[in-house]
User: Which sequence fits this backbone?
């Protein structure tokens, strides 16, 4: 059967400026009472497939992790006296999967605290104060870390701190320079150099550049080849350190490597890892060289591995390796990408598929030709997926990018369930909206038209103004 694309009409501008979440957010949140591996269970005991809980790295309440932590009935800490707790195994085990240059591990309770500590270390090491960040990035919730989170400044129209400087998000799909420009990467690098030059011209000194090697919160943006390597080289030439924020992306999530910076053939001066280390237990780590860590002086003793961290961390690493979860991420991630690319050929609202392993972004647009962000459709998909007992999220500047970051035990069966449900929802959405559009254009009710939460819709303009077909383009 000849395939045809579903073209989704764009809604008319609303009369009042209300955000999409206010219009479509469900009145009753899910009441989740327990979780197991990649599944969540609500109060009536309905089972939901969890596609976004990356913190539960090897699976919610994984029995091996629960057993290891449950055995810690004598765990204790004391911050006043210098106490010998014995030698812990976890730092040694984690060191085995880290680059040789990153030989010193400092432990804390959260990714935000780790980012704050990394910032302190970079300033001690360079005597600089200023920081280079990527536009639309997010690095945590502490006050100092908020300053590094360009996403918060932009969403709340908050003035940026004068020591924080943004470089452009290297988005080859929607950015200033796109994939049809062979010089796109060079232009992003040149723009970043101008930002750093301006810092120096103001008489300031760069302390560090901090970025996720795969930019998650902006919408799972995979930097183009050589971008991160060139950025690291340039920052070091300006005297700054390079910090990799792997809170979301690390510990094998991309499948091919333990750390996503390895896929770009770079090694940071400081690595930040978050709660995935303990499968959600509040632990994080800053990993750096002994030379940089030693700048803390006596304060270095404030960041030890604890008995609970040792138990949780060792059990997570063992599960990751024993159950071959990185190999699973490669296999299942490849199937997800294949099926999603197939859906992209059928549905015009899927603009871009990107990512690798269990880090995948699906950009939802009004049409592939116009690339107009479609947060209304993304919100509809998220809410209708919930009715299919599947939990996903949408992120990005325009809230139009579906994110898939499931626990690493996500299976081939789970992937097919997700793709089949997404196909069903896209088919229902396109049919409903096309019929509604025809009803508005002709002034006559069309059989099957229903009023959806998206409200009034009309055909897409700007090269997409042909009347949508009423025929169903079934897979």
Assistant:
């Amino acid at each position: 059967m000849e395939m045809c694309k579903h073209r989704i009409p764009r809604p008319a501008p609303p009369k009042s400026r209300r955000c999409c979440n206010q219009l479509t957010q469900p009145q009753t949140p899910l009441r989740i009472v327990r979780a197991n591996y990649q599944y969540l269970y609500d109060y009536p005991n309905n089972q939901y497939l969890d596609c976004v809980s990356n913190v539960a790295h090897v699976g919610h309440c994984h029995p091996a992790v629960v057993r290891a932590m449950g055995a810690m009935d004598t765990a204790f800490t004391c911050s006043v006296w210098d106490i010998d707790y014995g030698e812990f195994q976890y730092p040694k085990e984690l060191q085995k999967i880290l680059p040789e240059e990153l030989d010193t591990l400092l432990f804390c309770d959260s990714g935000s605290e780790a980012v704050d500590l990394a910032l302190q270390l970079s300033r001690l090491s360079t005597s600089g104060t200023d920081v280079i960040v990527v536009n639309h990035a997010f690095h945590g919730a502490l006050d100092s870390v908020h300053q590094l989170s360009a996403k918060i400044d932009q969403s709340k129209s908050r003035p940026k701190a004068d020591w924080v400087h943004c470089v452009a998000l290297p988005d080859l799909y929607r950015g200033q320079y796109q994939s049809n420009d062979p010089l796109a990467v060079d232009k992003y690098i040149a723009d970043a150099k101008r930002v750093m030059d301006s810092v120096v011209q103001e008489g300031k000194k760069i302390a560090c550049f901090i970025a996720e090697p795969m930019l998650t919160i902006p919408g799972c943006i995979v930097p183009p080849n050589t971008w991160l390597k060139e950025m690291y080289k340039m920052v070091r030439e300006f005297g700054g350190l390079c910090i990799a924020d792997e809170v979301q992306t690390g510990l094998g999530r991309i499948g091919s490597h333990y750390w996503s910076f390895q896929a770009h053939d770079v090694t940071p001066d400081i690595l930040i890892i978050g709660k995935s280390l303990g499968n959600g237990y509040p632990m994080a780590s800053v990993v750096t060289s002994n030379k940089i860590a030693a700048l803390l002086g006596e304060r270095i003793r404030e960041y030890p591995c604890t008995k609970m961290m040792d138990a949780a961390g060792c059990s997570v690493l063992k599960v990751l390796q024993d159950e071959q979860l990185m190999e699973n991420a490669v296999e299942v991630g490849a199937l997800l990408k294949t099926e999603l690319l197939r859906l992209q050929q059928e549905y015009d609202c899927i603009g871009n598929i990107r990512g690798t392993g269990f880090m995948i972004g699906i950009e939802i647009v009004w049409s592939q030709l116009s690339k107009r962000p479609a947060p209304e459709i993304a919100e509809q998909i998220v809410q209708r997926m919930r009715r299919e007992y599947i939990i996903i999220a949408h992120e990005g500047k325009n809230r139009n990018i579906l994110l898939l970051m499931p626990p690493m035990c996500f299976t081939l069966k789970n992937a097919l369930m997700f793709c089949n449900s997404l196909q069903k929802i896209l088919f229902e959405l396109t049919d409903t909206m096309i019929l509604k559009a025809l009803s508005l254009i002709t002034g006559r009710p069309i059989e099957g038209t229903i009023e959806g939460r998206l409200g009034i819709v009309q055909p897409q303009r700007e090269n997409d103004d042909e009347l949508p077909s009423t025929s169903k383009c079934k897979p």
